[in-house]
# Entry
Amino acid sequence: MPRKTDNGRRPIRLASVVGARPQFIKAAAISRAVERHNASPKNQMIEDILIHTGQHYDNALSGVFFEELRLPVPRFNLGVGSGPQGLQTARMLMRLETVLRRDPPDAVLVHGDTNSTLAGALAAAKLGLPLAHAEAGLRSRNKTMPEEINRILADRLSDWLFCPTTAAVRNLAGEGLRKNVRLVGDVMYDVFLTHRKEAKGRSRILKTLDLQPRRYALATVHRQENTDDPAKLADIILSLGRVAQGRFPVVFPLHPRTRRAMRGIASSVWASPGLLLVDPLPYFDMLALLDGARLVLTDSGGLQKEAAFAGVPCVTLRRETEWTETVRAGRNRLAGTAPARVAAAVSRALRDGRLPPLRLYGRGDAADRIVRILAREIGAH
# Structure
């Protein structure tokens, strides 16, 4: 049994389910907020139980983030690995149920929109455990995206819905979800503000790649809708190559899924000398690259948002986004994958130049607010 705290109350047991790079970043913010909460003797202690599903198992996408962000070693690593979505989610659900049934926490916290999010939400709901969803209420309106299905189901099952933006709150209200909806800000914004200066000081990535600030673009591609469609992926890489040939180098960290998919594309498509293909990068290197970039091209929801944090213009290689406020504010241009559309969006984004950071994501205290709410409301029961 957990030890009692000095004030005689046993700790609140909070199980955080993570499995992918963005979730490790968010979990780091929650972990620090728990430490700050526990530092006060008047607060009921929180036991932070980290459960890693193993969805991202490559060290470049997992272990290095735990080291850099000083995340505690996960209490449980389920080792699920990759595989077809249904099989992967089923394995996660099976192993999560075993862990959560053995020693039930007071609440389960899930982040974002991955298969780990869905599995954590389903496991908590089936076991009757209170569930909190951080980054609730996001909608792209594209139900062909697995992430959209994961978001909707996690929100429907959650007892607490922690929203990063007012747009997310409105989305939930439009679906009839108003109870326990809290506008807290964005946890990734907390981490960005905390580590931006540190990343500039510690990272040597610009020197390693021989890059000058504001004289390169940063690109990422990992969405299944793009990587699993050879024609779309070829169009994207062709577009990145044209930017690299016509304007400035494009740094392109390759997600393992993208690297595998590129094997089916003729090397002449991705052999542009200005297209710098690199392995997945640690968080500080990515943050330093983002901060110095002239432009971002991505299909990642997280990087769209981080570009807005940094004031870097973004071209999104999709036809829709869950971060709709970035488009409305003129910080993000939806281009899809057709080379002509990407080229036009790049030209417009470059005319915009650097922009003031988009301040719609809270005050950098989202994790503290989440922890305070959960401590108050779980501790009251």
Notes: The longest helix spans residues 21-38.
